[in-house]
């Protein structure tokens, strides 16, 4: 019996990225850590008339007992534009099952990249199936993107490896909706400083896109410190899900550093939200999603 895929017709992540590929633009997948971030990101999406994916690290689940995720999903459900909720770099099998079973995620990144390839594939396929049974889309990482994310450090120190065409097919076969290839992109606060800026293998990306041949969407990780021109080139080469952390939050962080001791708590929060709105809208325009919702 063929697997039931009816849920994909209403899954927000699937539909947002499908429209982005057809329209040849990128959709921001912004990391949120608190309520101000959630408010700013959704308000930016509404003002820019842009689709949006808000994503959380597993830290947000354990830190807030799932409250941040439920709050984001509630706000997303009332937004005037499509907003999906995504769990990024979920590396623990129990956490993935908990998230798919009990929390309102539209999609989950099943990140088994800290295992060797065969074990990675086996675990990924099993967990993707678990997500699909609950109407949750899935993302995976063929190859290994170097570096560590904030709150996701299991892969830090492991050697990165570029995605091969064989890995593309192997991971597409796990049933995922999104692939996050390793093409020289790196995780981390400022990962490219020691090498003089990002050095992406666009020839490899072109081959990956051709190998995928429309079967899944492509996600770009490791965008901290990217310049607009580089981001636009990635989108032109077929990337639709643009993971961003600092790009939407640098203004907010700078605001806190300068004003934390000078403003009341409410002023600090309100003005912080506006900084998130400004940065997020700017990158929505750069990525071409503004006006597409």
Automatic annotation (TrEMBL):
Source organism, top-level taxon: Eukaryota
Cofactors, names only: Zn(2+)
Function: Catalyzes the aldol condensation of dihydroxyacetone phosphate (DHAP or glycerone-phosphate) with glyceraldehyde 3-phosphate (G3P) to form fructose 1,6-bisphosphate (FBP) in gluconeogenesis and the reverse reaction in glycolysis.
Cofactor note: Binds 2 Zn(2+) ions per subunit. One is catalytic and the other provides a structural contribution.
EC number(s) given by UniProt: 4.1.2.13
Binding-site list for Zn(2+) 2: 111, 141
InterPro entries: Aldolase_TIM, Class_II_FBP_aldolase, FBA_II
Gene Ontology molecular function terms on file: fructose-bisphosphate aldolase activity; zinc ion binding
Record flagged with keyword Metal-binding: yes
Pathway named in the protein's UniProt entry: Carbohydrate degradation; glycolysis; D-glyceraldehyde 3-phosphate and glycerone phosphate from D-glucose: step 4/4
GO terms classed as biological process: glycolytic process
Name assigned to this protein: Fructose-bisphosphate aldolase
Chemical reaction(s) catalysed: beta-D-fructose 1,6-bisphosphate = D-glyceraldehyde 3-phosphate + dihydroxyacetone phosphate
Residue numbers binding Zn(2+) 1: 89, 187, 221
Protein family according to the UniProt entry: Belongs to the class II fructose-bisphosphate aldolase family.
UniProt entry keywords in alphabetical sequence: Glycolysis, Lyase, Metal-binding, Zinc
Organism: Phialocephala subalpina
Active site residues per record: 88
Pfam families: F_bP_aldolase (PF01116)
CDD domains: TBP_aldolase_IIB (cd00947)
Keyword Flavoprotein assigned: no
């Amino acid at each position: 019996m063929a697997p039931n895929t009816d849920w994909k017709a209403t899954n927000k992540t699937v539909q947002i990225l499908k429209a982005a590929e057809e329209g040849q633009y990128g959709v921001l997948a912004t990391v949120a850590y608190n309520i101000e971030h959630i408010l700013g990101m959704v308000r930016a999406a509404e003002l820019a008339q842009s689709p949006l994916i808000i994503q959380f690290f597993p830290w947000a689940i354990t830190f807030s007992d799932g409250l941040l995720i439920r709050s984001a999903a509630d706000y997303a459900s009332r937004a005037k534009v499509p907003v999906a909720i995504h769990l990024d770099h979920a590396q623990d099998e129990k956490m993935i099952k908990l998230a798919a079973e009990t929390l309102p995620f539209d999609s989950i990144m099943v990140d088994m990249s800290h295992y060797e390839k065969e074990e990675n594939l086996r675990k990924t396929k099993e967990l993707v199936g678990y997500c699909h049974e609950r109407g949750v889309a899935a993302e995976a990482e063929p190859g290994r993107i170097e570096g560590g994310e904030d709150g996701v450090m299991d892969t830090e120190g492991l050697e990165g490896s570029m995605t091969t065409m064989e890995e593309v097919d192997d991971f597409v076969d796990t049933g995922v909706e999104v692939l996050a290839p390793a093409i020289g992109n790196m995780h981390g606060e400022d990962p490219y400083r020691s090498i003089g800026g990002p050095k992406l293998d666009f020839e490899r990306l072109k081959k990956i896109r051709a190998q995928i041949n429309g079967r899944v969407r492509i996600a770009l990780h490791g965008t901290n410190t990217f310049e607009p021109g580089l981001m636009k080139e990635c989108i032109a080469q077929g990337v639709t899900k643009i993971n961003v952390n600092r790009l939407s939050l640098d203004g907010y962080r700078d605001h806190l550093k300068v004003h934390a001791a000078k403003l009341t708590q409410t002023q600090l929060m309100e003005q912080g939200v506006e900084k998130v709105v400004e940065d997020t809208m700017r990158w929505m325009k750069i990525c071409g999603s503004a006006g597409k919702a």
